[in-house]
């Protein structure tokens, strides 16, 4: 199981990827995939913070 710090690093990585994809006007589907991944990571982080 990843540590809280590892998840926080992944969150920032995916957030940056999504931002750059948006700025480069990539396909909506690509941005949506990144958004879903970001949501999953944020949910994991939330669970860790509340357990």
Describe the protein in words.
- This protein has 51 residues and is mainly α.
- 82% of the residues lie in helices and 0% in strands.
- It is built from two helices and no strands.
- It has helices at residues 4-23, 28-49.
- Helix 1 packs antiparallel against helix 2.
- It is elongated and about 40 Å long.
- The two termini are 14 Å apart.
- The model has no long low-confidence stretch (mean pLDDT 95).
In short:
This protein is an all-alpha fold and 51 residues long. 82% of the residues lie in helices and 0% in strands.
Essential attributes:
51 residues, mainly alpha, 2 helices, 82% helix, elongated
Average pLDDT rating: 95
Report the sheet with the most strands, covering strand number, pairing sense and barrel closure. Answer: none
H/E element order: HH
Tell me what portion of residues adopts beta-strand conformation.
Answer: under 5%
Alpha-beta content class: mainly alpha
Distance between the termini: 14 Å
**Overall morphology:** elongated
Which stretches are poorly predicted, pLDDT < 50 over at least 5 residues?
none
Number of strands: 0
Write down the Rg.
12 Å
Number of helical stretches of at least 4 residues? 2
Helical residue percent band:
over 70%
């Amino acid at each position: 199981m990843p540590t809280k710090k590892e998840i926080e690093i992944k969150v920032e990585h995916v957030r940056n990827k999504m931002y750059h994809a948006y700025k480069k006007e990539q396909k909506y589907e690509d941005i949506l995939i990144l958004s879903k991944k970001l949501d999953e990571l944020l949910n994991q982080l939330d669970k860790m913070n509340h357990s």
